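Researcher: First entry.
Model:
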Amino acid sequence: MDTGDAGIEAVVFDFGDVISLSPPPEDRARMERLAGVPADDLWPAYWSERRAYDRGRSAQEYWGAVARRVGADWDTATLHGMWALDVGSWLHVRQHTARVLDRLMQRGVRTALLSNAPVDISAALRHSPVTASFEALFFSCDLGLCKPEAEIYEHVLEAMGTAPERTAFVDDREENVLAAKRLGISVHHYAGGDGLVSFLVDHGLLDASNGGAPTPR
């Protein structure tokens, strides 16, 4: 779902499942053991309440709502443990994407982050080495908006000062990519590192002659 070259000035990246790995099975298993409820009950409740959490709901409110959905009576220590395991589970970084970000930084390409993320995860990412090179960080919890709502992309475009056709957006979720594309943003539906590199090479942001390594501007 790549678009043609339009002279891209800035690349906006999603975080989860693009820069980060999906939460690994061992992290999920630790959460299931701590929760003490069947996985088939825990994860539907986890995701059903997630959008409100991403919009700025507190961790205590979020995990309290999850507990009510699964019929659990978690004490404060358990709530804290679920929170800590959850935050940590989203911080495993894809080495390949991190190397691509390094290459873009070396070439002076403007980059930004746009993530549906709760306050707790956004707080960690503001201090993460992997986001240190980004010009701007945009989080749903700060904006009260979530992808794929059009307003969140419009906010990013205004804040970055770039036209849609000169802005690239990379995300693993089709609905998020389609929403950005409808606004005229140049998009890439992330499905692996090779496709990402090809997209960036096609737009002249990385050099194809050196395995995607940057060349001086």
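Researcher: Second entry.
Model:
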Amino acid sequence: MKVEQIYTGCLAHAAYYIESKGEAAVFDPLREVQPYIDRAQIDNAEIKYVFETHFHADFVSGHLDLQKKTGAAIVFGPNAKPGYDATIAEDGQVFTVGDYKVKVIHTPGHTMESTTYLLIDENDKMHGIITGDTLFIGDVGRPDLAQHVVSELTEEKLASHLFDSLRNKIMPLPDHLIVYPNHGAGSACGKMMSKETTDTLGNQKKVNYALRADMTREEFIKELLTGLTAPPGYFPQNVLLNIQGYESLDEIMERGTQPLSPEAFEAAANETGALVLDTRDASDFAKGFIPNSINIGLEGNFAQWVGEMIPDVKQPLLLVTYPEKEEEAVTRLSRVGYDNTLGFLTGGFETWAKSGKDYETAGRVEVGEVVKQFEKDALPLIIDVRKKSEYDSEHLIDAINVPLNEINQHLAQFPKEKPFLIHCAGGYRSMIASSILKQRGWDNFSDIIGGFDELKETSMPKSEYVCPSTLL
């Protein structure tokens, strides 16, 4: 049986495509559906079904557009209550795709409608399981997301459901089955996913902490909930879009890719209250940017950081991109529900600068200069905007940790009366922080070029985390 994984690294997301005898099915598609349609056309196949493992939180699925464009039936598992036409399958129900079979296995826990799909080949042999966010490679889905939409679904209740789903529905299945999860390392839907994106179920039974056969329910719940960080703020909004429905991507693309002159761009920003989102690299942004714009580089984990740093998916946006990158930017924004892009600056920032309009710059400093300041005992305050886990692992002595996704809650830790330096691992996140600080009125600071990746290669003193259990 051939199962094609279509992986999108910036979201750590995996969709799946199967085809048999001119019939195809897509599982958990991304927002832009043309690639799936094109894939089916190569096989001269008709997309018969769009299977959804659950109502996703970290991205907006393309199931509705795929249904409209192909006539495919949308299938959810038990308990799903979408606001549009869809087939709500029963536990154990079997769907046919050519000579293949897809069996519904209801596995609540990540959410109450979460469903695993058992794939059965043309010889009636079980091949693999498409697990959604129920089972990852090395991890399982976090059970604390649904309560942000339905308050009575506490993380403890969902974790208990997940314990039963794994023990009673997944673990009894044959070891040879291939596990096809919805996400890999880098997704916020789990806490310790592997960089591998498939594995056998038998090996996962051996190495996945959540599948230990001797775990009690209480032990499972405690281990699962320990170490969970707050989910990104856009997650509940994406869940609602997936439940209630959304605007067609074609309309979003038409609106978002409207070219605007500097004058029209400025007028749109003033009239709509739109946020100016600059998607260029950190080095180019620092040399010149439109006042009050935010920098989130398109070449990084763009969609995830947009979701972290812009609280409302309905926020009107105006884009500054490199030429011919505006369509990619609008597409990637739509993947996480930011559908209200109003246009882009024609010709990019260069057009703005040549028009004579005001712009700002951001201070940056080389690592070598930081070392010189340290050697002269003239080093200012350093603020590290990496995640707490990165900071705990290793950091510069005396550096203060303010994770980027918490910056708006801790602005008081950034002094206005004296200079300071900021850094992340390599410069991507620290420039996001720089743009936010500039927008809020801070000027007396510099971003360290190269970040901690270069700082750790210097002689500057660093502190490494020591596990408390080793302090004997």
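Model: Note on the second entry: The chain has three domains: 3-238, 247-354, 364-468.
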